[in-house]
Design a protein that fits this description.
single chain; alpha+beta; SH3 type barrels; Alpha-Beta Plaits; seven-stranded mixed sheet; flat; P-loop_NTPase
Length: about 1250
């Protein structure tokens, strides 16, 4: 295309995009242009060496075109399209159609009058197609709804645009209109139900925005997920419900955010709302993830007010208080865990000490086990051939495990919210539905990663669908007009899609690399380079780049960085982590993660790319079954302020949203289209007189022939339109300009002839003018005279009327004054009468109040007097009752005491009468039973102690094994520990031998003393109690109850006397019976008998291994009440002295120890009376025959009572324990 010097053109400005300019000159290097666009405020700039692709033809009549549909532009090019949008935007007309697309430019102004909700009724009143009103999202929703009603086919509205363009708000606008138009007809109940469903859907928006939106550089409330909402209608076309599906939540934003950006809104609302204080969270500055982008403040979802709005929305859709509390506790746990960092610990990692509290906060909020969480953060389990191996994780891998947990948990939480909204709003219906796709726009950042590839793949797929749909519609229009389109080709981006999702595409190679154990991003990029470089024009990898590659998308060429792609594509969560969260005590948090699959049913794990591709295929399958409509949202300026327009950014968004794709499709066909009437009216000047009498298709054909356009490749005639390529348009315009030039020359010659004739007739014309002026002057003077007379008459009439009016006013004034005086006097009289009546009424009220107060005082005095009398009577009555109760109580206790004394006296007499006859057989039977019970108790205690020692040894052995497994580095110290253990064991053996020798010596001395004491006791008893005993067998001797024992001070009532003389049984060996006949020494008898108390007999301890039969001796028990041995002393001397470990030291004394202390209390008294510097503490022992040993007793084990004793007589138990190891830092 060539431009003439001095002609207007569109120039692609480096800062403002396409602006109006003028060609100054032209040379071999290109054009020299000067900008002259006053509307865009771009005037006077000169640019040289401008190539042909940076200029486009322009004419004056094209500059003011502002059609509602951009396809109606005369020249369909990027430049007039951008200018039309600019002019409409600054007239506050933000919606424009381009075929099936509605272009919505975000005004950042919600006060435009013709876009207020009050104007919605104008659209609702129209028929099935909007024809009278301006383009709007309402119009698109209106047309979509009536297409669904008329065709009974599901519809789809695709809303796209970059962050901050207004996609979410547009979706809300469409949703609100659908709710209104669906209830346009029907009963009041049906309308109310439809509006109620619409209100629920509106309530879902702040919840999903809170948990799924975040602040970005481009938008303060950017949706970081895609959603597809099926708005369902019944057979009558009334709104009944909706179902939402989410796509690709941006998980990386859970952990961190870029500079001047924020993570999801929910984290900030939690710490600033009331729930943060309830959960004991810290301020927002304490959490690293909240400060990752160094931007804590935002214009939306930033304060406690927004938090309360979100809580209110949750209540509206039916989320209970417990579920709300669990949701925020889950978010708080994520926030706390993201503060946890790790330090190196050998080959593994450990939680940094400074962040321990945040780990505990996460455990507290999630209600899980701390040990399990700590383990899952620093270890992983590898399964190789069904064998599990625990592997330690380095600090970087531990951070990856932490991030994987919080990402999966937050994604599960967001999915639960979407499901909750669906359960509240979704219904099963047999009617049709309208799909609303709020999808992320094309993204091209400084650093683009795996998420940007998935987003751009979605836009690439939708653009491919759009190209085919629009191109087919355009080709069908051409075919209906009879145009040959065999040579027209549609722009095709299928190779770009195959580059990403083909068999050897990016996703396939990435999944293959993820399955390899040692795969890496660089190896993946190398395979990608080998597979596509030079084979696919959409792929490019620069040689100087090590970890990036380029894809030439339909909108722009995007450079992708492959670092971290493998981990993002795997996004695997350990089964142990899933089980840990599934075991949470919180029933809601337990549902956020799915349970791990059993190993036998577990197949090949799907990657994130494979899952997203499956979702995208399913989405496109749904869209392909519907009739699509498009709304493209544009952000005009990054400052996000009204009436600001950035040409470059707007053009980039128009290209990425597919708007310019429509232009390209038109350019691929015939972009210049005019109906015959408009075409002929503009270009019939080319034919001149030949065009007389011609019209329609015939005249258009003649114009094209006159222009020399005979090829069907650049221009064709349809049934109603002329279709031209862009190349044919300048030719027709140039010939029209030449014809206009010829016609202007002819007009100029005709004009000059006319001027000559005018000058010749000028004098004649002047005479006629003078005559006409005189006539007009005469008529004007007559008119002025008549006017003066008329004004004078009107003045006289006004004076007369004014005088009459003044008289009437004066008369009325006098009449009013008289009536006013009369009314005033009457009012004074009425006021005086009312005042007198009021005074009388006040006096009556005062007298009535005095009378009432006197009567009230009299009633109160009477009431107080009556209450005082009643109180005195009640007091007298209670005193009488107390006296009666005391007398009856005294009488009752006197009678009871007498009866008890009588019973006691009778029992004592009966006991004295039969005791001498029944004492011997009863004592024998009781003694045998008591001995067996003591043996059983002793054996149980021994068995229990033995089992406890075995359990302790088993626990110590398990601890040693565990320490050996965990402390592999300390194996070198084991030999020194073992050698030390052998030394200690030998030392313990030697000390045990010495102890046994000392014990045997003490026992021999004790037995000798026993023989002497026994002989003296028998002699003394024989002399003093010969009248009460038989000289036959001392082992069966019985004693009567003496008077001293009956009146023992410890039992004043005499009831415990029988118990004090109850015999205790001692087991004696056969060898000890012969020695029991030895009398006591005289010195001992004199010192002991002076106490006037009976004695107890004991047996001699047999030697080890002796197998003498068991012999039971029955002797009376003597009570040393004058010098009783305290229980504490007995426990210390006779009971087990706990010197082993904390377990034995903390064990309370058993009942056996108390019975043993009572049984052996006499040796302490004997030792005290026999010698002041000598204490005797013998052990009770007996030789038990094998038949008497209970079943299950361990062979060769001594009874606990025969354990070794120290030099001072105390008993010490020893339990073999394993070697003691120094605890490592890991176990500290």
């Amino acid at each position: 295309m060539s431009l003439d010097v001095g002609s207007l053109c569109f120039f692609k400005h480096p800062l403002e995009s396409w602006v109006v300019s003028r060609v100054i000159s032209r040379d071999a290097r290109g054009y020299v242009v000067k900008t002259s666009d006053s509307e865009r405020k771009c005037v006077g700039e000169v640019f040289s060496d401008v190539t042909g692709d940076r200029v486009a033809a322009c004419r004056d009549d094209l500059l003011d075109e502002e059609p509602d549909d951009l396809l109606a532009l005369t020249v369909l090019h990027d430049a007039p399209l951008l200018r039309c949008l600019y002019l409409r935007y600054f007239r506050n007309v933000i919606y424009t159609n381009i075929g099936a697309i509605v272009v919505a430019i975000n005004p950042f102004n919600y006060t435009i009058p013709w876009y207020q909700d009050s104007q919605m009724v104008n659209y609702l009143q129209e028929g099935p197609v909007i024809e009278k009103n301006l383009p709007h999202s309402w119009a698109q929703a209106h047309n979509t709804y009536y297409d669904m009603i008329s065709d009974r086919v599901n519809q789809c509205i695709i809303v796209s645009g970059e962050s901050g363009a207004g996609k979410t708000e547009t979706t809300k606008i469409v949703m609100k209109y659908l709710a209104q138009v669906s209830c346009k007809e029907g009963t009041e109940d049906e309308k109310a139900r439809s509006l109620e469903v619409g209100a629920k859907l509106d309530a879902c928006s702040p919840i999903l925005e809170c948990f799924g939106n975040a602040r970005t550089v481009r938008n303060d409330n950017s949706s970081r997920f895609g959603k597809f909402m099926r708005v369902k209608f019944n057979e009558k076309g009334q709104l009944v419900g909706a179902e939402t599906t989410k796509y690709l939540l941006e998980k990386s934003r859970i952990v961190t955010a870029a500079e001047k950006e924020r993570v999801y809104h929910s984290f900030y609302l939690l710490v600033r709302g009331t729930m943060g204080k309830t959960l004991w969270l810290e301020a927002d500055t304490a959490y690293k993830s909240l400060n990752a982008g160094r931007c804590l403040q935002n214009s939306e979802y930033n304060t406690a007010k927004e938090y309360n709005e979100v809580i209110g929305a949750m209540t509206k859709i039916g989320i209970s208080d417990e579920e709300v509390h669990s949701l925020w506790r889950c978010v708080g746990g994520i926030l706390s865990l993201l503060n946890v960092t790790f330090d190196a610990d050998g080959e593994g990692a450990q939680v940094q000490q400074a962040t321990e509290k945040y780990l505990k906060d996460a455990v507290r909020l999630w209600r899980i086990e701390e040990a399990t969480l700590r383990k899952e953060m620093v270890t992983t389990t590898l399964v190789v051939q069904k064998n599990e191996t625990i592997k330690l994780l380095r600090p970087t891998l531990a951070l990856d495990a932490r991030d994987a947990l919080v990402k999966a948990l937050y994604d599960g939480l967001f999915g639960w919210l979407v499901d909750k909204c669906n359960r509240m709003c979704d219904v099963a219906v047999s009617g049709n539905w309208i799909g609303l796709l709020d999808i992320f726009g094309f993204e091209d950042f400084t650093k683009n990663s795996f998420e940007q590839l998935c987003i751009n793949l979605t836009n690439e797929t939708l653009q491919n669908h759009y190209n085919k749909y629009i191109f087919e519609r355009d080709i069908n229009e051409c075919r209906e007009e009879g145009i040959d389109v065999t040579e027209v080709k549609c722009p095709d981006n299928s190779p770009c899609l195959q580059l990403i999702v083909g068999k050897s595409g990016i996703f396939a190679l990435l999944n293959e690399e993820c399955t390899l154990g040692k795969g890496s991003e660089l190896a993946f990029l190398e395979k990608l380079d080998q597979a596509h470089t030079g084979k696919n024009s959409f792929f490019e990898k620069k040689k100087v780049s090590r970890d990036t590659f380029i894809i030439h998308h339909y909108a722009a060429s995007v450079t992708y960085d492959v670092n971290g792609w493998l981990e993002k594509n795997r996004d695997t969560l350990k089964d142990g982590v899933k089980r840990m969260m599934r075991n949470s005590q919180d029933p809601l948090i337990r549902e956020f993660l799915e349970a791990p699959l059993p190993p036998e049913t577990r197949g090949k794990r799907l990657t994130v790319g494979a899952v997203f591709r499956g979702q995208l295929d399913a989405l496109m399958g749904v869209i392909n079954t519907t009739n699509p409509h498009w709304i493209r949202c544009i952000k005009p300026h990054p400052a996000k302020k009204p009436l600001m327009f950035d040409g470059l950014q707007t053009m980039r968004q128009l290209e990425s949203s597919g708007v310019l794709g429509t232009v390209k499709i038109r350019k691929a066909g015939y972009p210049v289209r005019n109906i015959f009437e408009k075409f002929n009216k503009r270009y019939n000047i080319i034919l001149g007189a030949k065009a007389q009498g011609k019209s329609g298709r015939e005249l258009a054909q003649m114009i094209l022939i006159a222009c020399g356009i005979n090829s069907r490749a650049i221009a064709q005639l349809g049934k109603t339109k002329v279709f031209m390529k862009a190349e044919a348009f300048p030719i027709v315009e140039r010939l029209r300009n030449e014809s206009l030039l010829k016609l202007s020359l002819q007009l100029q010659s005709c004009g000059r002839a006319y001027l000559v004739r005018v000058y010749a007739n000028r004098e004649h014309c002047e005479q006629k003018c003078r005559r006409l002026a005189m006539l007009l002057t005469h008529e004007f003077r007559v008119y002025m005279k008549r006017s003066v007379e008329l004004r004078e008459a009107k003045a006289r009439w006004r004076k007369e009327q004014l005088a009459l009016f003044s008289q009437r006013v004066a008369a009325l004034y006098e009449e009013c004054e008289g009536e006013k005086v009369q009314i005033h006097c009457e009012a004074i009289r009425l006021a005086q009468g009312l005042q007198i009546a009021l005074k009388k009424h006040v006096e009556l009220i005062k007298s009535w109040e005095v009378q009432k107060s006197t009567e009230r005082r009299r009633l109160v005095d009477a009431d107080l007097a009556a209450r005082e009398r009643m109180l005195q009577e009640a007091t007298f009555y209670l005193e009488g009752l107390r006296c009666v109760f005391r007398e009856e109580q005294r009488l009752f206790f006197t009678m009871l005491l007498g009866e008890l004394l009588d019973v006691e006296f009778g029992r004592r007499a009966q006991i004295r009468s039969v005791e001498s006859e029944e004492r011997s057989p009863l004592w024998r039977a009781y003694g045998l039973r008591h001995a067996m019970q003591q043996l059983e108790v002793l054996y149980r205690e021994a068995l229990m102690s033995h089992r406890c020692m075995e359990a302790m040894e088993f626990i110590q052995r398990d601890e040693i094994k565990e320490r050996r497994a965990l402390e592999q580095k300390n194996r070198s110290y084991w030999k020194s520990f073992k050698r030390l253990f052998r030394d200690k064991e030998g030392m313990a053996t030697r000390m045990s031998g010495c102890r046994e020798e000392r014990e045997r010596a003490r026992v021999s001395q004790l037995m000798a003393l026993h023989d002497v004491v026994a002989k003296e006791v028998r002699q003394q008893q024989g002399r003093s109690h010969s009248s009460h005993m038989t000289p036959t067998n001392f082992s069966t001797t019985t004693h009567d109850i003496g008077p001293d024992l009956q009146n023992h001070p410890r039992s004043p009532s005499g009831i415990d006397t029988q118990c004090s003389t109850t015999p205790h049984l001692l087991l004696l060996s056969g060898e000890s019976r012969a020695q029991s006949e030895t009398p006591f020494p005289a010195a001992f008898i004199n010192g002991f008998v002076s106490t006037n108390r009976p004695m107890q007999f004991w047996g001699k301890r047999p030697k080890q291994g002796a197998k003498a039969p068991v012999h039971v001796s029955v002797v009376p028990t003597y009570d040393f009440s004058t010098s009783p041995m305290p229980s504490a002393v007995i426990d210390e001397k006779w009971g087990r002295k706990k010197l082993m470990n904390n377990h034995d030291r903390a064990r309370p004394s058993s009942p056996f120890c108390e019975r043993a202390s009572n049984l052996v209390s006499w040796p302490y008294a004997v030792a005290k009376h026999a010698s002041a510097d000598r204490r005797l503490f013998p052990k009770l022992s007996a030789v038990i025959s094998p038949s008497d040993v209970p079943r299950g007793a361990p062979p060769g084990k001594l009874h606990p009572s025969v354990a070794g004793a120290n030099l001072d007589g105390t008993v010490q138990e020893t339990v073999a324990s394993g070697p003691r190891y120094k605890r490592s830092k890991r176990w500290a």
